[in-house]
Write a structure and sequence with these properties.
alpha/beta; Rossmann fold; disordered C terminus; 31% helix; seven-stranded mixed β-sheet
């Protein structure tokens, strides 16, 4: 179902957000953790989300439509040290308010580098979201960089740590390049969006003028 995803719009201010209805799942992650690559892999299409080797390129909230009333939301990467302080503060306000107040938001996909998850900024993201009592599915990305044994140990340790602090978080290993954990992540995403295989297929609207903001 996710191979029908299409780009919808980008917003840089809360006032630009689309109507707060339907069901959305947001993707969050530290800059260069593999968030955009994960979104592309889950959709089975290159270029849905912009991928760059330069951290901090995603500076807007990007909306993608999966089906009628169902959306994926790519949040700006956090923790980009070279961004100006004023820009970082604007990102914080934009992301924090969106996560805490968006009624259509059904869950969060948190992407963390499997080699060093749960950075202070990852914990801050979880703190922001914890009050909503909505589920979080954590992807330990770039799992192909670890041996099988090291990866399983990292997943277990991360899950145990999170279970004590954030009981609504589930953890899995993931690699966009080696397709590790792809089906598990898609199932978690579909559950959050309340979409089963019986969901109506998405019929694209006629193309409109303009591109991404």
């Amino acid at each position: 179902m996710f191979n029908r995803v299409r780009y919808l719009l980008s917003v840089g201010e809360l006032a630009q957000l689309p109507p707060d209805r339907g069901a959305e799942v947001a993707f969050a992650g530290r800059s260069n953790a593999g968030k955009s690559s994960a979104l592309n892999a889950l959709c089975g299409r290159r270029g849905i989300a912009f991928v760059s080797k330069t951290p901090g390129r995603t500076q807007l909230i990007n909306f993608f439509q999966v089906a009628a009333g169902r959306y994926l939301v790519d949040l700006p990467g956090y923790g980009y040290a070279n961004a100006p302080a004023a820009l970082r503060a604007r990102w914080d306000a934009l992301i924090g308010t969106y996560l805490r107040q968006r009624r259509a938001l059904r869950g969060l996909i948190l992407v963390m580098d499997a080699r060093h998850p749960l950075t202070p900024l990852d914990r801050r993201m979880l703190d922001w979201f914890a009050g909503t009592r909505r589920p979080v599915h954590a992807l330990l990305s770039k799992a192909d960089k670890l041996s099988h044994q090291a990866g399983q140990r990292q997943r277990t340790d991360t899950q145990e740590t999170l279970s004590r602090l954030y009981p609504d978080v589930r953890v899995q290993l993931f690699s966009s390049t080696k397709s590790i954990g792809l089906q598990e992540a898609r199932e978690a995403l579909a559950t959050m969006l309340e979409m089963g295989e019986e969901a109506e297929p998405y019929v694209p609207a006629p193309a409109a003028g303009g591109g991404r903001i």
